Amino acid sequence: RQAYVELRAPVGNGIDFKVGVFDTIVGYESLESGNNPNYTRSYGFSIEPQTHTGLLATYRFCDCFSMSAGVANTVGPTINQRAFYNMAESYKTYMGSLAFTAPESWGFLAGSTLYGGVVNGYHDSWEGTTTSWYAGTTVATPITGLKVGASFDWLNINNSYLSYDDSDDFAWAIAGYLSWQATEKLSLHGRVDYVEDRAEALVSGSQYDTAKIFALTGTIQYDLWQNVISRLEVRWDHSANGQPLFGGTDGYYSGGDLKNAVLIAGNIIYKF
């Protein structure tokens, strides 16, 4: 999925470069399933960029503070894709982020992180430009093994043909995370997230009738052996404004009548 060259320039503390195809700089959850606290992804993850083709530079001012800045072909994940339709092929995507890590002197908060980033550029799916804003944090607690986290995503789409009122369309999502390392092998993870979509980012036709979805996810993880983890997960999704968004046999525009969805999933992951 990624294919890049890493370089380091001896300027100050050193500037690290990635040249090629690399993961996006925004988001609480990773594209790597085994590195996430849950098996399923949040709605915020679903409206974020994924990968880019370009150049990314990262500079660490000290152990606590770093920043990244980059330029890429497009927001979309297609390798070497260029802007087209009504955009010049030379139109580029720009991105930047800031990260703070709490120092050891902060006591139980040591290692907690605060992160913010933005990506703006051409996106093929909407034949126009998009801007993704992201803020996220992971906070350690006085309880051994317990961490909490939160994330916020805002996606703005600048495309006049999509909007029925000739203004920008958007989707936004918020999520909260709770993780507890109960034993050396057993950990418990919970997530609550909410999204509003009026840009067809997730739901077709949502620019006319804003989709609102609430979700609860609970995951039990057990590390079977070295590099092998097992998970049991239960997820409930609910249409917060009464739209039947989850299929069914009859109802809303003959597209179904289900306002809730429940998922029970089990998986085993081997980490190389």
Spell the H/E element sequence. Answer: EEHEEEEEEEEEEE
**How many helices?**
1
Helix fraction bin: under 10%
Shape label = globular
Tell me the major beta sheet.
13 strands, antiparallel
Question: What integer is the average pLDDT?
Answer: 89
Rg calculated over all Cα atoms: 20 Å
Going by helix content, strand content and strand pairing, the class is mainly beta
Number of strands: 13
Q: What is the CA-CA span between the terminal residues?
A: 15 Å
Strand order of the main beta sheet, please? 1-2-3-4-5-6-7-8-9-10-11-12-13
Low-confidence stretches: 160-166
What fraction strand? over 45%
Descriptive account of the structure:
The protein has one helix spanning 43-46; strands at 3-9, 15-23, 51-60, 65-72, 93-101, 113-123, 128-140, 146-158, 169-181, 186-197, 211-225, 228-239, 260-270. The longest helix is centred in the first third of the chain and has 4 residues, at 43-46. It contains 1 helix and 13 strands; from the N terminus they run E-E-H-E-E-E-E-E-E-E-E-E-E-E. The model is unreliable at 160-166 (pLDDT under 50). 1% of the residues lie in helices and 53% in strands. It has 272 residues and is an all-beta fold.
Topology:
Layout: E1 3-9, E2 15-23, H1 43-46, E3 51-60, E4 65-72, E5 93-101, E6 113-123, E7 128-140, E8 146-158, E9 169-181, E10 186-197, E11 211-225, E12 228-239, E13 260-270
Antiparallel strand pairs: 1-2, 2-3, 3-4, 4-5, 5-6, 6-7, 7-8, 8-9, 9-10, 10-11, 11-12, 12-13
